[in-house]
Amino acid sequence: MWRIDPASDDPLYAQLVAQVRLGVAHGTLRPGERLPSARELAASLELNMHTVLRAYQVLRDDGTLELRRGRGAVVASTATDLTDVERAVADLAAAARRAGLSVQTTTTLVTEAMHR
Amino acid sequence: MWRIDPASDDPLYAQLVAQVRLGVAHGTLRPGERLPSARELAASLELNMHTVLRAYQVLRDDGTLELRRGRGAVVASTATDLTDVERAVADLAAAARRAGLSVQTTTTLVTEAMHR
DNA sequence: CTACTTGTTCTACGACTACTAAAACAAACG
DNA sequence: CGTTTGTTTTAGTAGTCGTAGAACAAGTAG
After folding, report:
1. For domain A12-75, is the CATH number 3.90.226.10?
2. What's the pLDDT band for A40 if we cut at 50, 70, 90?
């Protein structure tokens, strides 16, 4: 885990957010599991503590993580079954690729569909 | 068409990009059709010409539009059938909503799935 | 050919975001 | 108790977003 690309267009904190979300969605990160502390993760990734903390705070506001002083960041207990979603995602990816759609156009379509 | 929200978190040019992409995907904008000139659209939306032009340039680099001086912005001829994609998008949106996933997490999953 | 339209390029500015940095603080842990 | 860890504050640099004005080049239309 924790593959950060400083040269990416996406902000560093957003990359962390996406990775945690994917980990939780895929079951790699299980509810109750503890993530590295902000200082620890920042040191190992050669980032600033605030950058890591910002990602953690986004995920806390999102309901994905629970943050407490002295304990650190813990994955919240969501416990939803994502098999349907995973299959739908795979189907969409295949259809979009077949149609020659870009990733951006595809996510734009998804965002629009979910905003209704 | 052309509903811009200056208070949105998304940049103005990104909103324009998304709307053109959706228009092309849904068939509202057909290949060969001409979009308003950058100055014209900027005036009617009360934006700066550069903001509109930036959106047009993103779409040109994307292959969605063709830009030529004196003529303006024209929808490129892609002509792909999107019925499969539309159905897959609707299925995914339903599954994600059923699982209680946020729009962001869902698009993150889609992005990841298409990057493989 | 001429006049007009339209995209292209350049410089510049103010506002905001992203990231880093150092420090001090408060709550929970062992 | 001391340690760990998130929280908050202040500060600086770099980059993006949007606006603005101007000049330029390649097409279009008459």
Report:
1. no
2. very high
